[in-house]
TrEMBL record, chain A:
<dbReference type="Pfam" id="PF00528">
    <property type="entry name" value="BPD_transp_1"/>
</dbReference>
<dbReference type="GO" id="GO:0005886">
    <property type="term" value="C:plasma membrane"/>
</dbReference>
<feature type="domain" description="ABC transmembrane type-1">
    <location>
        <begin position="93"/>
        <end position="300"/>
    </location>
</feature>
<dbReference type="GO" id="GO:0055085">
    <property type="term" value="P:transmembrane transport"/>
</dbReference>
<keyword id="KW-0813">Transport</keyword>
<dbReference type="InterPro" id="IPR035906">
    <property type="entry name" value="MetI-like_sf"/>
</dbReference>
<feature type="transmembrane region" description="Helical">
    <location>
        <begin position="282"/>
        <end position="301"/>
    </location>
</feature>
<keyword id="KW-0812">Transmembrane</keyword>
<feature type="transmembrane region" description="Helical">
    <location>
        <begin position="28"/>
        <end position="54"/>
    </location>
</feature>
UniProtKB/TrEMBL annotation, chain B:
<keyword id="KW-0564">Palmitate</keyword>
<keyword id="KW-1003">Cell membrane</keyword>
<protein>
    <submittedName>
        <fullName>Extracellular solute-binding protein</fullName>
    </submittedName>
</protein>
<keyword id="KW-0449">Lipoprotein</keyword>
<dbReference type="Pfam" id="PF01547">
    <property type="entry name" value="SBP_bac_1"/>
</dbReference>
<keyword id="KW-0472">Membrane</keyword>
<dbReference type="InterPro" id="IPR006059">
    <property type="entry name" value="SBP"/>
</dbReference>
<keyword id="KW-0732">Signal</keyword>
<dbReference type="InterPro" id="IPR006311">
    <property type="entry name" value="TAT_signal"/>
</dbReference>
Length: 309, 444
């Protein structure tokens, strides 16, 4: 994970060695090395985005009864205006915002706590423990969603009576979805944090101990600040993931009427493209979603550099 | 290197494909028509077919055994709204649609609005008399034929005949009696309800409104007349709202594990379903043999009994197909050959749209699960009672709108009639936005 090793001394050493390499080994090398990435970026990201941009400027119009098929009409930014003016879209943004406010602190906080415990503990079963926490990530989202849905179902699922909220009720689906996602992503992020914690130089920790810092103080004042860049990267991915929330609500839809067909922005896009055949509106909504993701990630990254300065 | 962006596009795609495959009963698998030549090595005409119909591979195999001129290449796609319609619509848009498309009566018009279906009025004119009138009407929305009917799905009332008898409850003939029966069921067992009204199922509500005899769409000349909140629909809506308010029926989904468990353990004594409910019950609760019976749906006016449909399959030939004759050869066989219901009876309970085939099905399908009136007689009568109805070019999207609007009913945020008035406004606006000629018939 470059994410983790970026600030470690080894990575710096490698960069220095590279700079010392004699020039003129062939100007082709950088192109050859960057080629596969550039091609994939072009083919799987840039071209689709360009096509989405193109699609988002058109809408299909029918005439009469519509049996003669549609023709495309250029509508400038009409689709964007439609999406932004659609209460269903605004509600979906509200839903993911509330979801993010619950999920992000809960999941990242939990992952950090578990990683710190794992790092400081002298347990023998460390690998078994981390594997078992990581395991939910290995379960495909749809399968996990179905299992959770059964657990939440009244009559057959044990959780329906045990939980303090009605897991499939109109107020309860949000905490239910937060539960599902937190279960799935907690172990994954814990592993990332734990790996970062392992790279904290042991002499620093020893110095902290010599200075009289207890395990709690060491964790909060030494370890956490040292892995802050990793935490922020995880935060960026979690923010993006929250905005793109899709699988859990999609699966729950067939179990409850409380999850609408446009419950999250991603579902809104899915519904527009694949149920209503409104590709222009779907493209506009997905570009708006991508833009929101980009802006939020930039904001979080900026926050992280300012903080660590 | 594992990229931590694992949650984004990749899992999104995987999730949608996975969900689609799951709902298709695990027979998922995305097919693509090859742009190969139109004949096979042995000289047969090659016809491509996309379908999510259970057992289609058996039918195709039997077709190949029966003749050598046409070779059908089947690609199993995800069921209807789980991805099948999206895939077919996109294929039409991309000009690589298969020769034969899988449609349901409810989705036919929306698919028709892609401009991708072939007018088969002349080629199929001779078949008109063989089909159930409701099926033939359903594939001829504007007087032209756009699909070959396969099966029918008139709605019927499935009930626990053993419990009804034990408590001396008569099968309700009108909705008024239905409400009274709902009360008696709760008296007999406070934990039990007569049925559930699935608030997350737009096609169910459409079927119920259909039975009330107030079509949501009509074609008048070159104009769509839209009336989603007409008198019959609002009467249906108000009726179910009252039952929900009085806690006489549940509002939960059908088809879930919980629903199946409730049917089996006697927490639900009835099920308002379609003809395919026969297969659903037989497969979901096989241990309940000898407990269930089928009756006609209750009606609003005993003098003019009626019930709607929920689903029903048909097949269309794509407009760009290079081999429409061969495609129709297969569809004609699929829809009318007596061999088809015989094969179907080995794994399901087919209810063919072609009446001679229905007689075949009646004889070959084992009638050992249900008690009471013979299943096929009840369904035949239900089929005959299906009133006029036209689906609109936004029907599939409207199912989502209905489910979304009704989703707010269980929390008390709205009522079913109010929700339907909102859906009506959305439906009219959507069609106008798409440039269609629309006349609105105001909510009652």
């Amino acid at each position: 994970m470059t994410v983790v090793t970026e600030d470690s001394p080894r990575a710096n050493g490698r960069a220095e060695r590279k700079r010392r390499r004699p020039a003129g080994r062939g100007r082709l090398t950088p192109w050859l090395l960057a080629g596969p990435f550039a091609l994939l970026l072009l083919g799987t990201v840039l071209v689709p985005i360009g096509y989405a941009l193109y699609l988002s400027l058109f809408t299909e119009r029918l005439s009469g009864l519509g049996f003669d098929g549609p023709h495309d009409v250029f509508v400038w930014l009409g689709n964007y205006a439609d999406v932004l003016g659609d209460t269903a879209f605004r509600d979906s943004v509200g839903n993911v915002a509330r979801y993010a406010l619950l999920h992000i602190p809960l999941m990242l906080g939990g992952a950090l706590l578990l990683a710190l415990l794992l790092d400081s503990a002298t347990v023998q079963l460390r690998q078994l423990w981390s594997l078992s926490v990581f395991l939910p990530y290995a379960v495909p989202g749809v399968i996990a969603g179905l299992i959770w849905a059964y657990l939440f179902s009244p009559g057959v699922g044990p959780l329906n009576d045990a939980l303090p909220w009605d897991p499939l009720g109109s107020d309860g689906v949000l905490p239910s979805i937060v539960t599902m996602a937190t279960w799935q992503w907690l172990g994954y992020n814990m592993i990332i944090f734990y790996t970062a914690l392992r790279t904290v130089p042991r002499d620093v920790l020893e110095a902290a101990t010599v200075d009289g810092a207890g395990p709690l103080r060491t964790a909060l004042a030494v370890k956490v600040p040292m892995i802050r860049p990793t935490v922020f990267v995880a935060l960026v991915f979690t923010v993006i993931g929250s905005l793109q929330l899709f699988t859990e609500p999609l699966v729950l839809r067939s179990f409850t009427s409380s999850v609408t067909s446009t419950w999250t922005p991603s579902l809104y896009v899915y519904e527009a493209a694949f149920v209503r055949n409104d590709h222009g509106r779907a493209a506009a909504a997905s570009l708006l979603l991508a833009l929101a993701c980009a802006l939020l990630s930039a904001l979080v990254m900026r926050l992280s550099t300012r903080r660590s300065r | 290197m594992a990229h931590p962006l694992g949650w984004s596009r990749r899992s999104l795609l995987r999730a949608s494909a996975g969900a689609a495959a799951l709902t298709a009963g695990g027979v998922g698998g995305v097919g693509l028509t090859g742009c190969s030549s139109s004949t096979t090595a042995s000289g047969a005409t090659r016809v491509t077919l996309w379908s999510w119909m259970t057992g289609m591979d058996s039918y195709v195999a039997a077709f190949h055994a029966a003749q050598r001129e046409v070779h059908v290449e089947l690609s199993v796609i995800a069921a209807g709204l789980s991805g099948g319609y999206a895939q077919q619509t996109n294929a039409i848009k991309a000009h690589n649609a298969p020769d034969i498309l899988h449609v349901e009566y409810q989705g036919l018009i929306q698919l028709l609005a892609t401009g991708g279906l072939r007018d088969i009025t002349e080629e199929t004119a001779d078949l008109a008399d063989g089909y159930s009138p409701a099926a033939w009407r359903a594939v001829r929305p504007d007087g032209r034929t756009w699909a070959v009917p396969m099966d029918m799905a008139p709605m019927a009332f499935y009930y626990r005949a053993d419990l009804f008898e034990e408590h001396g409850i008569e099968v309700p003939r009108t909705w008024e009696e239905f409400a009274a029966v709902a009360e008696r069921v709760r008296e007999a067992d406070p934990a039990a309800r007569l049925t559930t009204f699935p608030l997350n199922d737009g096609s169910f509500f459409a079927g119920m409104s259909w039975g009330a005899g107030d079509p949501w769409w009509r074609i008048e000349g070159d104009t769509w007349v839209v009336n989603v909140a007409g008198e019959g629909t609002l009467r249906t809506a108000g009726f179910w709202q009252d039952l929900l308010d009085a806690d006489l029926v549940g509002g939960g989904a059908t088809g879930t594990q919980d629903w199946i468990a409730a049917l089996h353990t006697g927490r639900l004594w009835g099920y308002l379903g379609a003809a395919w409910g026969v297969g659903t019950l037989k497969k979901s609760i096989p241990d309940d043999t000898g407990r269930w019976a089928v009756a006609l749906m209750p009606s609003w006016d005993p003098a003019r009994p009626a019930n709607g449909m929920q689903g029903g399959t048909a097949f269309s030939v794509s407009a760009e197909s290079g081999v429409p004759e061969a495609a129709l050869t297969f569809l004609r066989w699929l829809s009318t050959d007596p061999e088809v219901p015989r094969i179907g009876a080995t794994f399901t309970s087919p209810f063919p749209a072609y009446l001679p085939n229905r007689d075949v099905a009646r004889e070959v399908v084992a009638d050992d699960y249900f008690i009471g009136d013979p299943v096929y007689e009840v369904l035949d009568e239900a089929d005959a009672r299906v009133p006029e109805w036209t689906w609109g070019p936004n029907a599939l999207g409207l199912f989502s709108s209905v489910a979304d609007a009704l989703g707010r009913v269980s929390s008390g945020a709205t009522t079913i009639p109010d929700a339907l008035r909102g859906v009506h406004r959305t439906a009219v606006a959507t069609l106008r936005d798409r440039g269609l000629s629309v006349r609105e018939e105001g909510p009652a």
